[in-house]
Design a protein that fits this description.
Helix 1 (about 1-15) packs antiparallel against helix 10 (about 365-375) and helix 2 packs across helix 5 (about 170-180). The chain has ten helices and 14 strands. It has about 375 residues and is α+β, with helices and mostly antiparallel strands. About 25% of the residues lie in helices and about 15% in strands. The radius of gyration is 20 Å and the shape is globular. Strands 2-1-13-12-11-10-9 form a seven-stranded antiparallel β-sheet, with helices on both faces. Strands 7-6-14 form a three-stranded mixed β-sheet, with no helix packed on it. A hairpin with a 4-residue loop joins strand 12 and strand 13. It has one domain (about 1-375): DD-peptidase/beta-lactamase superfamily (Beta-lactamase), CATH 3.40.710.10.
């Protein structure tokens, strides 16, 4: 497997003009292989298995696990008004449009937001970089990126009526903090990454982290890459939707915990029934299809364009077998700098692929992901 994956990645990365990637594959019993191919950017030093990546929205799965631990303990509830925990979300407003002078028109939402809706991205909350309407609304409600104020947005639909990707999991992180009395970073260290021995995963951004971090790049119009030094964590809080840095190996440890129904070699952090619930489709509408308001940051994205995917409590779920090997019912998501993972419980396989460039979901990056998946399944 290792040699096949290395050869596949070398060929796919060269064709995609992507300088390098780190990948890890495992099953319930352990790690099957880890590989580092290429460099930290054009002409940069080689990638290694301990290179750190900004995993961005792959943070969401860990935050979701944290919330479900608190659900198990009765400190959070999936279907109660989350406004009792987060007063900021107690009276949600839906953005309906703008008047002739450009002022936003809002109305009271038809119902409350629940934790289940936040975890499944059916709360109605979106992202500004994916919504021209929210970008226009922000012009009337200024807030610096990375501040708590930047999370305060109107809904784009009534709770429970649409799948809309956005700041929902950042609010889940805030709910974890309120219910536990701990900052999200400390909570994850105490209850998730620490017990699982994920020593390289955290919110920190000190000199030691910077020395190991794969630098972020952005695609130029001519197809080349340029350094793009931005940091996806927040300046005021630990961003439960985007802020973690980590290694491919650490993330595989997390994925193997899901494969094993809530535990790994070091500790059990969830009940098996909770993992089953997180792995079950929770939505009645197609999930995972995203538009863009900022194509230099992310393209329109649909990982499985031929099927209507579901969404669990933190994971995309493909309802049919994937074209490149994964079974129906597999769990997956990604990070905006083109990092990806999937968890195939049926075939007892989990895999992680870390790259570090924008825009997210570009065809070239998806070609690398699909080639990697085929190699994992021996195709």
């Amino acid at each position: 497997m290792r040699d096949h994956i290395i050869t596949t990645l070398e060929t796919a990365l060269a064709a995609a003009d992507i300088p390098g990637a780190v990948a890890a594959v495992g099953n319930g019993a352990g790690t099957l292989c880890e590989v580092a191919v290429g460099s930290k950017g054009p002409g940069g030093p080689p990638l290694t298995s301990d290179t750190l990546f900004q995993i961005a929205s792959m943070t969401k799965a860990l935050t979701s696990v944290a919330a479900m631990q608190l659900v198990e303990e009765g400190r959070l509830h999936l279907d109660e008004d989350i406004g009792t925990v987060l007063p900021e979300l107690a009276s949600p407003q839906v953005l309906e449009g703008f008047d002739d002078s450009g002022q936003p028109i809002t109305r009271a939402a038809a119902g409350p937001i629940t934790l289940r809706q936040l975890l499944t991205h059916t709360s109605g909350l979106g992202y500004e970089f994916m919504s021209a309407e929210l970008t226009q609304w922000r012009q009337h409600h200024l807030a610096a990126p990375g501040t708590k104020a930047s999370l305060t947005l109107p809904l784009l639909a009534d709770p429970g009526t649409a799948w809309i990707y956005g700041v929902s999991t950042d609010w889940v992180g805030q709910a974890v903090e309120r219910a536990s009395g701990r900052g999200l970073g400390q909570y994850l260290l105490d209850r998730v990454t620490g017990p699982m021995l994920m020593a390289d995963t955290g919110f920190g951004f000190d000199d030691a982290v910077k020395a190991r971090l794969a630098p972020l790049h952005a695609r130029l119009p001519d197809g080349g890459l340029m350094p793009f030094p931005i940091h996806f964590d927040s300046t005021e809080f630990n961003a439960g939707g985007a802020g973690l840095k980590g290694t491919a190996s650490d993330y595989l440890t997390f994925c193997r915990m899901i494969l094993n129904g809530g535990g790994n070699d070091a500790a059990r952090i969830l009940q098996a029934s909770t993992v089953d619930e997180m792995s079950r489709n929770q939505v009645s509408m197609p999930a995972g299809r995203m538009t863009t308001n900022m194509p230099s940051l992310t393209g329109a994205f649909d990982l499985f364009p031929t099927m209507d995917c579901g969404f669990g409590l933190g994971f995309l779920i493909n309802p049919e077998p994937g074209p490149d090997g994964r079974a129906a019912g597999s769990l997956a998501w990604a990070g905006i700098a083109n990092s990806y993972y999937w968890i195939d419980r049926q075939n007892d396989i989990a895999a992680v692929l870390m790259m570090q460039h924008l825009p997210f979901g570009e065809p070239a990056a998806l070609d690398v992901l699909r080639a990697f998946e085929r190699a994992v399944y021996g195709r």
